[in-house]
Write a structure and sequence with these properties.
It is found in: Cytoplasm. This protein is an alpha+beta fold. The chain has 5 helices and 7 strands.
Length: about 180
Amino acid sequence: MSEFKQLYSPLIQSAKWYSVQSWALEQTSHGAWLLESESLSRRLAQYCQHFTVTVLAQTMISNSHLSVMERQLVGDSDCLEREVMLYGDQQPWVFARTLIPMTTLSGEEQDLVDLGDIPLGYRVFNDKNSRRDALEVANLGTQQQPRWARRSRLWINEKPMLVAELFLIESPVYAKEKGC
């Protein structure tokens, strides 16, 4: 599992993010995935028999280890960093890194620390006071072989967190592009 973290965590942290308006996503097969405003986990689960999450790491990090943009999106609080792999039928589909500020981990949201292998989207999008904004996308591959990623801020009861997701080659995001 740590090979996934070693490979994908630096990629997602060094991504050059662009606003969704910079890309013509609406006309592409992957655009619907990148623009998904609800739970990505719920959507992925519809494309497989067994949807699972494996926690690769969960640690507290100082806000000094966050990029300037990350601090702008989630504030100056230290964060819980959660890195997971989402699997569909035992195939790695998405690497995700979530930054949850300590200020978010209070009240009803303190349970976010104990999610374990429960998808974050299942918890966040069960709450009627949840939303997604600040959506950005990146291509971490090439023009010929894109490896799409997205980053967005999730809000639950007006408390922020930042989620970055890298769609891996076996992900259904690329199914139409592979002719499936």
